[in-house]
Every structure is written in C-alpha cells, then in structure tokens.
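Researcher: Structure for this, please.
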Amino acid sequence: MDRSPEPMPEAATDDHVFAGWAAAGAGAMLVKLRDSGLSGQDLKDAGDLASHRFLMRLIGQYRPDDVVLSEEGKDDRRRLSARRVWIIDPLDGTREFAEPPRDDWAVHVALWEDGDLVAGAVAQPGLGTTFTTADPVAPARTGPSERPRLAVSRTRPPRFVAALAEDLGAELVPMGSAGAKVISVVRGITDAYVHAGGQYEWDSAAPVVVARAAGLHTSRVDGAALRYNQPDVLLPDLLVCRPDLAEPIIRLVRNYR
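Model: Predicted structure, token format:
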C-alpha cells in the first residue's frame, strides 16, 4: 500500500516539486488506508506510521544527503549542524483523519535550508488538492466591510480568542489540523489563523512556507519571527493572516497576554 510512486522528472532536482509530489503521494496512500476498514485508534496509529515510513523512504531515496525531523521519528540531532533539513508531519489532524468524511487533515512536507524555510507542501487529500510553493495560490481577499473569519482549533482554541473575535468583529471558524487551518487562509475561506497553547515545528513549517509563498503574513502571535530547526522544537503559537490584519491582531493579542 505504501510502495514508492514513480518519480516526477522535476522532483529529482526541484525541491518545490519534490515536496508537493511527496506530500500528495503520502496523502493518496492515506486515503486508501482510510478506506481499508480500520477505525478509531487502530486507524490513527496505522496512518501515522504508514505515512512516516512512506515519506522517510522517499526522502532517503531522492534526497539521501538531507536530514529529517519528523513528528513520528526520533530526533536526529545531526540536523542542528546540517544545511538542509526536511521537517515533516506525516499526518496532521489524526483525530479528523479517523472521523470520515472529515476533510480537515493534512500531510506536511517542508524544507529548511541555511537558516530558513525555503520550500514545502501541504496535501489535503480530503479536498483532492496539494498546496505547494511550486505553484503559490493567491488568496481571495474579503472586502473591508466584510466580517473577518478566524480559523481556530476545534478542541483547544486560545483562551483569548473570544475577546479577539469580539474586538475585531470577527466570526470564529473551528476546524482540525493546523495545516487545514493555515490553508483555509491561503484559500480565502478564512482571513486569519490564530493559535496559542502548544505546537511543534512540524505542525507549522510546511503550512507557513506555503502561506508565505502566497503572500500572507506569518509570525508568532506577538509578531516575533518564526524560527525552525531549533534545539527545542516546541513552537507554541502562530499567526497566519492577510497582511492588513497582522498589525491589529498582534496589537490586540499583546493586550490580552
């Protein structure tokens, strides 16, 4: 089920294409697994492991000199002195993956090189789409008179989010998967994603680099820069939004904290 797909010719040399190809391949494999009859925790565990192995095999075959940081793997500390590190979340939104027909789950593949994120992809198999830095999406813009929509965690939204929504005159849109929430901003379905309370580098790396390629603002919720491939991979908060919303959201969040 998780046999390596035939490579796209461009994937051998183009990191943007490789990220999209790898994420899409893992996503297709996960769709088949989701239809296999497994359910509950068995499906979650099988999905995490199968996607991790699939991506590790592809990176090992086509990018053998690179290091990998994966949610499902042991932290390879060689990454701290490496020039190129793939940061992957083989199955983001495991809870939603195990709740068919929900589509708010994703596969994250990002490349960090020489100090910053440079390429990546977020596959959303439930939508049949992979969003990549190879082909950035220009988000649809809501007009200034329209009510902003804030994507938030369906299970653990920040404590201040209700006040933020009230002050912005915004509507809250709960959903699963950090990747799905960031991509909802890329797609123009929402206008901002605000998270605080715990994430790791693999939760946001691929969505962030895709959002940046689309021209969106990305930062910590207080406006600080997002830094990846750090000794401590905890990266507990995140803001991705339309550029015009960044300053008011950051200002308000600083008042709440």
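Researcher: Any notable elements?
Model: Strands lie at 67-70, 84-92, 106-113, 116-124, 129-132, 149-153, 171-175, 192-196, 217-219, 237-241. Helices lie at 15-34, 40-62, 94-97, 161-168, 178-186, 201-213, 243-256.
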